[in-house]
Amino acid sequence: MPEPPLACLQALPDPASVEVRETHISWVLLAGEFAYKIKKPVTLPFLDYGTVEKRRFFCQEELRLNRRFAPELYLAVVDLGGEPAVKMRRFDETQQLDQVCRRGGLTQDHLSRFARELAGFQRGAARAASAFGTPEGVRADALENFDELERLLPAEAALLARLRAWTETEWLRRRGEFQHRHAGGFIREGHGDLHLRNLVLLDDRIVAFDGIEFNADFRCIDVASEIAFTLLDLLDHDQPGLATWLLNEWLVWSGDFAALALLRFYLVYRAMVRAKVAALSGHAAEANGYLAKGLRLTAPPPPRLAITCGPSGCGKTYVTSCRLASAEFLTTVRVRSDVERKRLFGLAPDAASGGTIYTPEANARTYGRLAELAEAILRDGWSVIVDAAFLRRTERDHFRGLAWRLGVPFELIAPQASPDELARRIAARRNDASEATVEVMQQQLRWFEPPGEDERV
Description:
Helix content: 40-55%
Low-confidence stretches: none
Structural class: alpha+beta
Mean pLDDT: 95
Strand order of the largest sheet: 1-2-3-7-6
Radius of gyration: 25 Å
CATH class of the largest domain: Alpha Beta
Largest sheet: 5 strands, antiparallel
CATH topology of the largest domain: Aminoglycoside 3'-phosphotransferase, Chain: A, domain 2
CATH superfamily of the largest domain: Aminoglycoside phosphotransferase (APH), C-terminal lobe
């Protein structure tokens, strides 16, 4: 149907002023300060809006599901000329994240808050029924994309064959991890379509909207698959630094480092989904771009291990943050001792410990955990930056030995500053995971073993 039913338009004040937005499954009527989403009476392989009763049910589902993310936008299900419609508060479309990103307005601060809220939402979201997110189901969904793409893009048969082979091989290699995620409660009822056009800045805060209500298979997914869509879209907008920042902030607040084992699989899967959608819309060049991006994701550069060194306030976190923000692709994970120490003791990254978790025994536990995480992440093919003081040579040597054992390059990052500058920086800190005081820094300087020349090569 090319236009929304006339009765729907006439049910609104001043029908002549209503703007219409159309997708292949819905119309959105923009009327003053409100928007009304009407579902088209269509039946497709992945949805069924064939009757008024079904459309009303899915309107109610859309309201229920999206209020979890944006209660300020989703207001009610109303009747417009005999058709159910989701009534929403209208927002400024120029604040959708794809547009914000294109004009350079998306910041690390925006993404840090979003990562924290997304991790919190995922932690509390309903655990999906066991039928969802099975390893076999994940494989079938991934291969279905290739079946469609091979039909839609016959000229790219060779490239698609490479991507299909990688997908099959990676799934087989990671089958145990897929099973662990399924059994461990990582399949949650999420958003299902978390790309930049479904995110909007409201009062300078990223808010998700327009989650998938019409097919539970699309939203009851691994939390790693959920964030993979946002990461892929940032890469597609030529923002690898922001993608790297978002991933690392999500890891800070979720602690879900095990997701890294499957994240590249899900990134490639999401790239194939986008390629399929583009091809179905007749945009072959766009589809080919996603195929190229998928291929690049299958062949990351060899991983590297870097550690920092120096007392509190010397600039370790600042320097490593700059590295993340200037990343050329999505390859690097930072592990912070200040965060992981608190996690070991059941504290949130921004919680105050009162100094009780800074004993020698706690230090040993923390460095042990950092080594464990670094090794697992490196084995999963990601480069790692370990942001910790590493004041003792024995601590640094242990990680150098880890790099040697795994056959990866090793780097020592040792920023320096005068004692007065260290004190000034510590006093100026706000909203940081570190609890170091000037007195702690002064103690650190007394037992610090600065790196020797032989450690810098």
